[in-house]
């Protein structure tokens, strides 16, 4: 039997393969040879064979049959065997497989080996991949080695201890005694790893933190070490571009941060050294800036005096001007974190920040954008908006939605005049109109309605915008609505703000009918247009033309459009006397809560939807009596009320409890709005509810699923994709009850992970009839901009046979089409 | 819970071929493959003008290209990216000292040595030794322990 091919020989051979198939063939051949060699229990070449296997594993080929061989190598007496064996273990084994536990005994022996390099191998392996069980078994050995005078082993033991603590936090206490004089070591390796260990302990346990602050007087020790590093002369062993052991400096600064946080005394004790590092560190290379950066982070996190904080922010300001984009990036990240607390200091660097909007790097641009929005205030709003609108014009699509939302928010808060506000809104709609969020349309409509003196100007501008471009749906929708409402102002040429345009009724109707007919218009937009045309029947004189249009669409294939047209037809034919009253101008709307995004969240540059608290818009004040009549006229709709109302059983504190139960998942339950009778009529004539009545849902062919099935309660999920936003999945839950008693007071609640947003609409009822005689349905809308795998936790409460029932469940079996 | 952990380090070529993978968190082979594939694609798509940091899933990735090799570390979000760049640089310096003007071929043909060196520099994702000299000394000594007349030469050979 010839000796197996050498490792490097194999590598050379495999690299000559010209195709994937050829490579695969070579690998298979070699694997077969290796397998038979393993079967023969060959000790001499086991090491060589495993090494080859590791190479092939890196190429992507399976190597699990080598796992046990690694264990045999580890158990061998030869150092070479152990070296490869441990490497193999780290690459091929993992703690999910029981086989890894077989290593434990070997590691234990090797931790006590006479050769420090063998001990080192064992410590390294344990500290890299040790499972909780292994850590429990071997913690004692590690603790012993933490106390050795051999610095080579001590430093490794410290990091191994860190791993043990991460895996089995309860074991932290046992390492405490060994930490006593770790910091009096001269060896930098031990110092560095000791600081890491102390950091881990202080981070994990407030008691440890307090102990190290008070009893061990850690801060003065660290200050002393840091001072020595800075003041000492050139030390070739640890020098990096003129700085002595930057790694250790950074770690010390980090530990100081943790010790100084929320602690006046500690913060004071480190004040001087922080100032010293901040002013004396050489900044020509990345390494110096790395230290400065850590210093800034520490200054901002502890209770530093204001002079120091200003120093820190100025460092960040200088970073912003650095040629190195990495430095600019970290500066923006840090400024984002501090803009709330040190707003004025950051304001001083506003123009530099705004310049960063033009940076080529996507991450830098995003941070600059978020920071810019955070810096907008009443004084600088005009200038800032100009820059941000310019950015909106030219930025990548991935930014447009967030930027548009940000502009709307800032405009709402700080608009110097109504005219400016509307101009800004118009600008966003015309430049980024297809990217604005769904809820922008109702918000803008509300804004426009309430700016009474601007109606003529607004409708004129919107009309002109439509003449230019009808592809951007939110713009078209808002424009349609306005023309429907204020078309008479358009005709009368009453505009004060700018030159009034001359336009005829026919021209206006041409435009609206064009929208109806255009391929570019979504069903939602068509709905808006038809309604607008209808409204004009009381504002224009071309009633006949309007009647004709309306009757044509009475046979539209689009069910929603058809329904509207038929109803409007009915208005003309049978209820003409009611038409003027029904179609009159919308009243001023009460703004009870901020609609839409209430805050541009400091996501620190990460792409996350900025509407954090999805505050549900309040029910719009509608003349209720007329609407009731409408309900009667239309024969008592079975349409599910889609306004945000709650079944008035849940007390407002429920939100709190649920939060506790569901941990850190973001919560969305039915909004506890004022108790409105569930027969609230649907808003036919305006699309202001957050759930437009018309069907904006296009069936997407996603298979339904069973989300829950227990104790006779079954909950099915059916899916639709919401148009036009492909990131929103619309789920309808159907709850049925197969038991003989009905389930009353049924409440369904759901929570999703942080990257998602959830909107839960009102349920059809809160009684699930017995014996599957009916169901409770409820609609959930899930926004999933990051296209992550959808998961949900649901909570069900109901009363069954007189007793309250409550259950929590996870829903993980969502079909991939629902979130991809 | 720890906000300063390095989760993994990957070395790959400009064609996306993996040259080294060091994982400091437990993941299945399948997950590792998926992460590697996606991350390699993402990094290779970056333009030269972009900065060395990118947000990926809930991690921060720090990467730098040295000749034909990308060195890529994934750290948790609170970490100091600039010092991670220094860590990467230190590792490259160590390889360079050991192999003498290291190139990608050295790492391909002596991958196990690249791992040994990394394991003397980092442990559990943290630096265990900040002196270049000490790391190289340890490797040298360990190499000497290797049983003689073995094909794992201490001097790299293609």
TrEMBL record, chain A:
Residues 700-815 form the GAE domain. InterPro entries: Adaptor_Complx_Large_Subunit, AP1_complex_gsu, Clathrin/coatomer_adapt-like_N, Clathrin_a/b/g-adaptin_app_Ig, GAE_dom. Its main location: membrane. One of its GO terms (biological process) is intracellular protein transport. Keywords: Cytoplasmic vesicle, Golgi apparatus, Membrane, Protein transport, Transport. It is found in: Cytoplasmic vesicle membrane; Golgi apparatus. The keyword Protein transport applies. Signal peptide: none annotated. GO terms for cellular component: cytoplasmic vesicle membrane; Golgi apparatus; membrane coat. Belongs to the adaptor complexes large subunit family. This is AP-1 complex subunit gamma. It comes from Solea senegalensis (Senegalese sole).
TrEMBL record, chain B:
Pfam families: Clat_adaptor_s. CDD domains: AP1_sigma. Keywords: Coated pit, Cytoplasmic vesicle, Golgi apparatus, Membrane, Protein transport, Transport. GO terms for biological process: intracellular protein transport. Its main location: membrane. The keyword Magnesium does not apply. One of its GO terms (molecular function) is clathrin adaptor activity. Adaptor protein complex 1 (AP-1) is a heterotetramer composed of two large adaptins (gamma-type subunit AP1G1 and beta-type subunit AP1B1), a medium adaptin (mu-type subunit AP1M1 or AP1M2) and a small adaptin (sigma-type subunit AP1S1 or AP1S2 or AP1S3). Binds to MUC1. Residues 5-145 form the AP complex mu/sigma subunit domain. InterPro entries: AP1_sigma (IPR044733), AP_complex_ssu (IPR016635), AP_mu_sigma_su (IPR022775), Clathrin_sm-chain_CS (IPR000804). It comes from the Eukaryota. One of its GO terms (cellular component) is AP-1 adaptor complex. It comes from Solea senegalensis (Senegalese sole). It is a peripheral membrane protein. Belongs to the adaptor complexes small subunit family. Subunit of clathrin-associated adaptor protein complex 1 that plays a role in protein sorting in the late-Golgi/trans-Golgi network (TGN) and/or endosomes. The AP complexes mediate both the recruitment of clathrin to membranes and the recognition of sorting signals within the cytosolic tails of transmembrane cargo molecules. This is AP complex subunit sigma. Coiled coil: none annotated. It is found in: Cytoplasmic vesicle membrane; Golgi apparatus; Membrane, Clathrin-coated pit.
């Amino acid at each position: 039997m010839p000796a197996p091919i050498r490792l490097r020989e194999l590598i050379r051979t495999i690299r000559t393969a010209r195709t994937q198939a050829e490579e695969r063939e070579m690998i298979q051949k070699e694997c077969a040879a290796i397998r038979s060699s393993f079967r023969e229990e060959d000790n001499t070449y086991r090491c060589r064979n495993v090494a080859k296997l590791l190479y092939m594993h890196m190429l992507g080929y399976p190597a699990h049959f080598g796992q046990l061989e690694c264990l045999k190598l580890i158990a061998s007496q030869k150092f070479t065997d152990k070296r490869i064996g441990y490497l193999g273990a780290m690459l091929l084994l993992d703690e999910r497989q029981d086989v890894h536990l077989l290593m434990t005994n070997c590691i234990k022996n090797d931790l006590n080996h006479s050769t420090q390099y063998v001990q080192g191998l064992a410590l390294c392996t344990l500290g890299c991949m040790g499972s909780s069980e292994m850590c429990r078994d071997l913690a004692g050995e590690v603790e012993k080695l933490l106390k050795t005078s051999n610095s080579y082993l001590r430093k490794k033991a410290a990091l191994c201890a860190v791993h043990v603590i991460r895996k089995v936090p309860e074991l932290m206490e046992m390492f405490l005694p060994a930490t006593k004089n770790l910091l009096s070591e001269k060896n930098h390796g031990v110092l560095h790893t000791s600081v890491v260990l102390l950091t881990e302990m202080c981070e994990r346990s407030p008691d440890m933190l307090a102990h190290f602050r008070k009893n061990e007087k850690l801060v003065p020790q660290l200050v002393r070490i840091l001072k020595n590093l800075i003041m000492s002369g050139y030390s070739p062993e640890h020098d990096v571009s003129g700085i002595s052991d930057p790694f250790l400096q950074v770690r010390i600064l980090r530990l100081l941060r943790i010790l100084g946080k929320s602690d006046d005394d500690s913060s004071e004790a480190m004040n001087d050294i922080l100032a010293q590092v901040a002013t004396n560190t050489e900044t020509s290379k990345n390494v110096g800036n790395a230290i400065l950066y850590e210093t800034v982070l520490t200054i901002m996190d502890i209770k530093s005096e204001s002079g120091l904080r200003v120093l820190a922010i100025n460092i960040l300001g200088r970073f912003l001007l650095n040629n190195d984009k990495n430095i600019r990036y970290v500066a923006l990240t840090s400024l984002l974190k501090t803009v709330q607390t040190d707003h004025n200091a950051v304001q001083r660097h506003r123009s530099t920040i705004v310049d960063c909007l033009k940076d080529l790097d996507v991450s830098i641009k995003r941070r600059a954008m978020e920071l810019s929005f955070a810096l907008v205030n009443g004084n600088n709003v005009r200038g800032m908006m100009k820059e941000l609108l310019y950015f909106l014009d030219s930025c990548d699509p991935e930014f447009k939605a967030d930027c548009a939302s940000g502009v709307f928010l800032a405009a709402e808060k700080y608009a110097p005049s109504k005219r400016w506000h509307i101009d800004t809104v118009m600008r966003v709609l015309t430049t980024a109109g297809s990217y604005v969020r769904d809820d922008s349309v109702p918000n803008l409509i509300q804004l426009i309605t309430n700016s009474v003196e601007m109606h003529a100007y607004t409708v004129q501008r919107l009309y002109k915008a439509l003449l230019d471009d009808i592809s951007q749906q939110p713009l078209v929708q808002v424009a349609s609505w306005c023309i429907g409402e204020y078309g008479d102002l358009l005709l009368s040429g009453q505009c004060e703000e700018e030159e009034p345009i001359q336009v005829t009724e026919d021209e206006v109707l041409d435009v609206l009918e064009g929208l109806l007919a255009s391929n570019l218009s979504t069903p939602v937009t068509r709905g808006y247009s038809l309604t607008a045309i209808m409204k004009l029947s009381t504002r224009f004189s071309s009633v006949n033309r309007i009647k004709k249009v309306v009757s044509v669409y009475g046979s539209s294939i689009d069910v929603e459009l058809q329904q509207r047209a038929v109803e409007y037809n009915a208005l003309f034919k049978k209820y003409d006397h009611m038409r003027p009253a029904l179609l009159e101008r919308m009243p001023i709307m009460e703004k009870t809560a901020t609609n839409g995004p209430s805050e541009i969240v400091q996501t620190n540059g990460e792409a996350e939807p900025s509407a954090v608290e999805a505050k549900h818009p309040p029910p719009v004040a509608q003349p209720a009596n007329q609407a009731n009549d409408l309900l009667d006229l239309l024969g008592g709709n079975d349409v599910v009320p889609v306004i945000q109302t709650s079944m008035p059983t849940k007390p407002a504190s429920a939100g709190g409890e649920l939060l506790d139960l569901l941990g850190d998942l973001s919560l969305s339950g039915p909004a506890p709005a004022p108790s409105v009778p569930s027969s609230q009529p649907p808003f036919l004539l305006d699309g202001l509810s957050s759930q437009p009545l018309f069907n904006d849902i296009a069936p997407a062919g996603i298979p339904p699923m069973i989300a829950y099935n227990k104790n006779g309660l079954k909950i099915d999920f059916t899916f639709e994709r919401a148009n036009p936003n492909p990131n929103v999945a619309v789920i309808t839950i159907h709850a049925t009850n197969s038991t003989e008693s009905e389930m009353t007071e049924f409440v369904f609640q759901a929570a999703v992970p942080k990257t998602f947003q959830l909107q839960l609409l009102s349920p059809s009822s809160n009684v699930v009839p017995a014996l599957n005689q009916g169901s409770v349905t409820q609609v959930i809308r899930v926004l999933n901009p990051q296209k992550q795998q959808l998961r949900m936790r649901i909570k069900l409460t109901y009363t069954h046979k007189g007793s309250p029932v409550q259950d929590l469940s996870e829903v993980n079996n969502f079909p991939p089409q629902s979130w991809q | 819970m720890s906000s300063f952990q390095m989760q993994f380090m990957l070395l790959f070529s400009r064609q996306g071929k993996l040259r080294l993978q060091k994982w400091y968190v437990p993941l299945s082979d399948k997950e590792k493959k998926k992460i590697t594939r996606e991350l390699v694609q993402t990094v290779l798509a970056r333009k030269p003008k972009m900065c060395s940091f990118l947000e990926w899933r809930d991690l921060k990735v720090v990467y730098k290209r040295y000749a034909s090799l990308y060195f890529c570390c994934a750290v948790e979000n609170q970490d100091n990216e600039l010092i991670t760049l220094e860590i990467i640089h230190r590792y490259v310096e160590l390889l360079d000292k050991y192999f003498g003007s290291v190139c990608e071929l050295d790492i391909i043909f002596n991958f196990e040595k690249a791992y040994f060196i990394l394991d003397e520099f980092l442990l559990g994702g943290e630096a265990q030794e900040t002196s270049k000299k000490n790391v190289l000394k340890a490797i040298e000594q360990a190499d000497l322990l290797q049983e003689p007349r073995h094909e794992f030469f201490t001097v790299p050979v293609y």
